[in-house]
UniProtKB/TrEMBL annotation:
InterPro entries registered for this protein in UniProt: Haemerythrin_Fe_BS (IPR016131), Hemerythrin (IPR050669), Hemerythrin-like (IPR012312), Hemerythrin-like_sf (IPR035938), Hemerythrin_metal-bd (IPR012827)
Pfam families reported for this sequence: Hemerythrin
Organism in which the protein naturally occurs: Ramlibacter alkalitolerans
Protein name, UniProt field: Hemerythrin family protein
Claim: Transport is one of the keywords in the record: yes
């Protein structure tokens, strides 16, 4: 399978008007050079790729859980290293969480079109965010040197969604 963005879909897509599934594969150009971040990004691509109508609700719940874990790890790494763009990065993460929560509470029944819309949105957001912001952090992180300070406890009781919805 190519490591390029491509149109593909399960057998029988032609029977549904030829609409394919937009799938973005992990590629080396997304590598930040921070092993934990890169591994988590690869898992995010795999989770989005696996999003199908038959598993939409369960896969999305798992994806949300994993996104919260990844964002928590990434933000903690940024905080520990003194990254000056941390607050802006948190805001971007929270904006994504808000958009995904709209899909969760949208009230619309899951359909191929809705799943495709979500998959396309997530792929585009993930690629744009990594290429624009996470790679910048990776370059900054390697230029300034990894911190050996212990991880500070930033509002340890508030998860991403707690912060997003003002629950503290």
């Amino acid at each position: 399978m190519s490591q390029q963005a491509r149109e593909s879909g399960p057998p029988g897509d032609a029977d549904r008007g030829g609409q394919g599934s937009f799938v973005v594969e992990w590629r080396e150009g997304f590598r930040t050079g921070i092993a934990e971040v890169d591994a988590e990004h690869q898992q995010l691509f795999a989770l989005v790729k696996g999003l199908q109508l038959a598993n939409a609700k369960q896969r999305l719940e798992g994806l949300v859980d994993y996104v919260v874990t990844h964002f928590t790890h990434e933000e903690a790494l940024m905080e520990r290293s003194g990254y000056p763009g941390l607050q802006r990065h948190i805001e971007m993460h929270e904006h994504l969480a808000m958009r995904v929560s709209e899909f969760l509470v949208g009230g619309t029944a899951w359909s191929e079109e809705r799943v495709q819309e979500l998959r396309t949105f997530l792929n585009k957001w993930l690629v744009a965010h990594i290429v624009t912001h996470d790679l910048h952090f990776g370059r900054w992180y390697h230029a300034t040197g990894p911190s050996t300070q212990p991880l500070p406890l930033r509002d340890a009781g508030a998860s991403l969604f707690d912060r997003l919805f003002g629950r503290r």
